[in-house]
Amino acid sequence: MWRKIKKLSPNRKHRGDYPAVKIGRLGVYAKFQGQGYGKKILDLIKHTFVTNNRTGRCFITADAYRAAEQFYVNNGFKRLSPNKNLEKDDTILMYYNLQELIG
Predict the structure, then answer these.
(1) Model confidence over 37-64: pLDDT tens digits?
(2) What is the side-by-side strand order in the sheet with 20-23?
(3) Max intra-chain CA distance, the chain
(4) With DSSP H G I counted as helix, E B as strand and the rest as coil, what are the percentages for the chain, rounded to 5?
(5) Fewer CB within 10 Å, N- or C-terminus of the chain?
(6) Burial letters for 48-65: b for 16+ Cβ neighbours within 10 Å, e otherwise?
(7) Cβ(55)–Cβ(21) below 8 Å
């Protein structure tokens, strides 16, 4: 699975790791759901790691609950594994390529 991200990574032959920031669980208080706050949080994270990025991160990864998968897809995330049968629990590993914002 991780080979998919490595192929997108700059200097992939020289890397033994994956330059990513991880969102374990993103949640918005129930009272404020559906008002765009989750999108704003993701936009802020994307902006932070593209503008004056001194961390070298190229990807955002997320452990998305199955019920939230469409939210992440709507915000540009892709499944790391296209095969739904590979996930063993209630989460889906997804990623966003920050290079898409740069060029």
Answers:
(1) 999 999 999 988 888 777 778 889 998 9
(2) 20-23, 59-65, 91-97, 78-79
(3) 47
(4) 40, 20, 40
(5) C
(6) ebeeeeeeebbbbbbbbb
(7) yes
> DSSP 3-state assignment of 22?
strand
C-alpha closest to that of 98 among 63, 51, 39:
51
Is residue 59 within 8 Å of residue 95, measured between CB atoms? Answer: yes
* Residue 10 host element (H or E): none
> In the CATH scheme, what is the homologous superfamily, with its name and number, of domain 2-12+20-102?
Gcn5-related N-acetyltransferase (GNAT) (3.40.630.30)
